[in-house]
Amino acid sequence: MRIRQLRDRPGPWPDARQAASSLWMIPFRRINWWLAWVSWALSHWALLDVLDHLGTFSVLVAVVFYFADSDNRIKQKHYQAWQVINTAQGKGGSGGRIEALQELNADHVSLIGVDAGGAFLRGVQLEHAHLERCDLHAADLRSSDLKFARLSDSNLQSANFRQADLSGADLRAAELQDSDLNQAYLDNADLAGADLSRADLRLADVNHFAWKEIQSMQLANVYGVRNASAEFLAFAQMRGAVSLESDEDWNVLLRAAASGAK
Q1: Which of the 8 DSSP states describes residue 165?
Q2: How many CB atoms lie within 10 A of CB 96?
Q3: Is the per-residue pLDDT at 6 higher than 60?
């Protein structure tokens, strides 16, 4: 708050005029003398104090209303984020969905059932996200952070999770057919009931992940999987998985299987 300072009464004009060191300074001294009188008069006005207090009070009121309206602003922010996501459904590219999804997740908003199939979401940060029953088929999720994300019962077919972090993720009953999990981190992930048919698991880290109830691994490629137990490798082989370093050799098998299915 501004502190009002009571000013001394200005002296008479002759005294002020004598202080001028030269004739050309007299007009300036005259102006300064008049302004000194105005300043002295205003310093005694209580109205200025009232206006000063009203200004301070208006700031306080604005602060109170700002915080009181915070819930509405958050709701509006979430509404705009969902609008971005829903408007971009079925379209390629990001379309602002990376920021929108991250913003909602940061505010602990559930993303259950979100539809971002085919979206470019490379590097998205969705740790601990609730993404159950979502549709991320053919989405580009390379290098994304999905640690401890809940992705159970989701459509993740042909999604690109290359080098993504799925540590501790819940992938139970997820559809992961033809997905790219090359060099992905799956340590401590739960894949009970998941379909990994034709999935690329080469060089994936599968340390301590739940694999015993995986539904299918037909033609999944497990070449060079890291931290894999002998039991898992035997299980994968029994479920029709292959171990091939070359894309060409693996694609031959995939094409042959596709031709035989027709």
Answers
A1: B
A2: 15
A3: no
Asked if residues 158 and 179 have their Cβ atoms less than 8 Å apart, the reply is yes
Alpha-carbon distance 33 to 44, whole Å?
18
Per-domain residue ranges of the chain: 13-68, 91-262
| Cα 198 to Cα 220: distance, rounded to the nearest angstrom | 4
Q: Which residues contact 82 (CB under 8 A, 6 or more apart)?
A: 100, 104
Q: CB within 8 A of 212, min separation 6: which ones?
A: 192, 235
Q: Pull the structure tokens for residue 163.
A: 């080098």
Fold classification of 91-262 is: Pectate Lyase C-like (2.160.20)
**Environment class of residue 66 by beta-carbon count within 10 Å: exposed (0-12), middle (13-18) or buried (19+)?**
exposed
What are the pLDDT digits (tens) for 220-241? 999 999 999 999 999 999 999 9
